[in-house]
Amino acid sequence: MATLAQNHEEIAARELKPELLEMDGISRASVEAHYKLYQGYVAKRNEILGKLAEVDLSTANQVYSDVRALKIDLTFAIGGVKNHEIYFEHLGGHGGDPSGIFGDLVKRDFGTVADWKADLKATGMGGRGWAWTAYDWDEGRLFNYIGDAQNSFPVWNATPLVALDVYEHAYFIDFGTDRAAYIDAFFNNLDYDVVSDWAQRYGVRP
Ligand SMILES: [Fe+2]
User: Fold this and answer.
1) Is 160 in a helix, a strand, or coil?
2) How close is the Cα of 60 to the center of ligand 1, in Å?
3) First-to-final CA distance of the chain
4) How far is the CA of 44 from the centre of ligand 1 (A)?
5) 63 CB contacts (<8 Å, ≥6 apart)?
6) What is the pLDDT of residues 151-177, one digit of tens each?
C-alpha cells in the first residue's frame, strides 16, 4: 500500500515553566487554560500524521480531497505547536527594554523600542490570531508580520523571535475584550534574554 508520512514520530508537549504561573497581569488560570489548547495542538499534530500514514494512495481519486484536508489541518496543528512554544518560552520575564542582540536589532530596524512596540501592538490589534516579530533572512532585518490563524500568514525564510498571541483565548479571562491592555501586559512579561539567545543561536547579526 502506498502511503504518506510513514516515518513520523510523535512529539510531546513541552513543560510549562513555573514562571508562567506567576506573571503580572496574565493569570495562572489563563495560562493553564491556554496550555491545554497547546497540548491539543500537539495531540492533533500526532493524530494527523498518523492518519496520513494510513491514506491508501492506490484507491480512487477522492483520496486527494482527504489528503488536502489532512495537509491543511496539519499546517494548522503544527502552526499551533510552534506559535505556542515561542509564546510560552519567551514569557515569564520582566519586560522593560530589550537588551542584547534583539535590542540592537530593534533599534536598528525600528528606530526606537517604543516604535517597535507600537508597530507590533498595532499589528496585534489588526490581526485575528497572531503578530510576530521575525527576522527575515532575505531582507536582512526584522519585520512585524501579521497572522490570522495558526497557519496564516507565515513568510518563507523568516524566523519568528517574538510571537504575540491575540486570539481571544489568550486574554478574555483576564482582560475581557480589552485586547490593548493584554498586549501591554504581554510586553511587561516578555523575557528578552530568551529572545536574544534565540537570535544568537540562529546566527542573526545586528
Ligand atoms: Fe493561543
Assistant:
1) strand
2) 38
3) 51
4) 15
5) 55, 56, 57
6) 999 999 999 999 999 999 999 999 999
